[in-house]
Amino acid sequence: MRYAPLTQAIQGETVDAWDIHFKATSLKERDPSVIILSIGDPEFDTPTTVIDTAIEGLRSGDTHYVEIEGRDNLRSKIAEQHQIKCAQQVTKDNVILLAGAQNALFASSMCILEPGDEAIVLQPMYVTYEACIQLTGAKLIPVAMDKENNFCLDVEALEQAITDKTKAIFFATPNNPTGVMLNKQELQLIADLAIKHDLWVVSDEVYSHTIFEGEHVSIAGLENMAERTITLNSLSKSHAMTGWRVGWAIGPTELIGHLSNLSLCMLYGLPGFIQQAAYTALTDTDALADSESMRLSYLRRRDRLLKCFQQHPKLSCITPQASMFLLVNVSQTGLSSQEFAEALFEQQKIGVLPAAAFGQCASDFIRISYVVDDKQLEDACNRIDSFMQQFSLAECS
Ligand SMILES: Cc1ncc(COP(=O)(O)O)c(C=O)c1O
Q1: Of ligand 1's atoms, which has the minimum distance to the CA of residue 242?
Q2: Whose CA is nearest to atom 13 of ligand 1?
Q3: For ligand 1, is residue 102 a contact (CB within 6 Å)?
Q4: pLDDT score recorded for residue 397
């Protein structure tokens, strides 16, 4: 049978990067000593009150078709919380619930890009951006963040990448995999360019609740930016709810109308009992306390990993300000990041991700996810120490 050309656009070249992760998960089924630090899925349980609400919702019959954009109370709550950050008028009409930030990214790309457009993405970038953009027929233009400078914005590179075909700038802040946040000055530079060239900005903020240092700024809150910004967020990371698929897009009301039409034929709204649970996640004191305790655990684990890597002169880290990831530069070991990740898996049964999957500028790095408990993390640090001995021995001989 024949398939449409768009099937090519969604194939993505980054699939190879997951090889080690797939090997590690398959080995773990037989060998529990394998430690998987390659995926961004929190190991915490979803807060109990959220689960209870979903179960009650199911039992009380909240299992029918729902409003496509989502229920008013949930949309209003999301709008209210976004407004606090942006200090400007946001209402439920600026919000649509979608199936995770992923689905919101996909739907937003479909509504703003068309064949012939160019979409700039700040790299390193989350791996699915490529397919989402290519599906629309637009061309992805990567703009590398400045890796010599803690992956901060290279504004000159951004400015040079803009052409008369540019339609949008996409980025994630905090970033996956660097864990670095764009600060207000950097966001203002992006905003100035977006306004000057009349561009959309798609700001993916799924890690904005998992912050360790600094203040998270939403570009939508900068002057004259709300009308051209789509903010994406979800409960996946903040509440360990990756499998619930609760996410949303916030943007101009006209865009929300288009997204709603797209959702009508693609998703038909999020299940009612899940929306009830999502409302609990955003409002219930216990659920919020659970989310905060997750953040503190990530912070503790980040610091443990930093301590481990800082002991090894051939490794250097980017200190994440947020998220659940750490990038480690392995180029001084003489191995490529792929070779390093393979050797770490073969010798120590630890699965990590070669970061080239996130863009060329990250190719010297591996990404470590700190989504395992303290005991496993301690074990991982000890194994990394043993693994690194071969490199210090090579230095002495
Ligand atoms: C930067 C970024 N955006 C979006 C997503 C997708 O999140 P969700 O589970 O809300 O679809 C992820 C997941 O890892 C991510 O890292």
Answers
A1: 9
A2: 40
A3: yes
A4: 46
Phi and psi at 318, nearest 5°, equal: -95, 125
Pocket perturbation via mutation, ligand 1, pick of 39, 102, 108 by most ligand atoms within 8 A of CB: 102
Ligand 1 centroid distance, CA of 101 (Å): 6
Q: Which of 96, 98, 103, 206 to mutate to test the pocket of ligand 1 (most atoms within 8 A of CB)?
A: 206
Contact 167, 177 (CB under 8 A): no
Pocket lining: 247 vs ligand 1, CB cutoff 6 Å? yes
Query: What is the assigned CATH class of domain 6-45+287-392?
Result: alpha beta
Task: Give the number of other Cβ atoms within 10 Å of residue 185's Cβ.
Answer: 11
Residue 311 has pLDDT above 50, yes or no: yes
Q: Please list the residue range(s) of the chain that carry CATH number 3.90.1150.10.
A: 6-45+287-392
CATH class held by domain 50-284 = alpha beta
Strands 247-250 and 229-234: antiparallel
Q: What is the pLDDT of residues 36-73, one digit of tens each?
A: 999 888 999 999 999 999 999 999 999 999 999 999 99
288 Cβ closer than 6 Å to some ligand 1 atom? no
Would you state the pLDDT for residue 396?
A: 45
Residues of CATH 3.40.640.10 domain(s) within the chain? 50-284
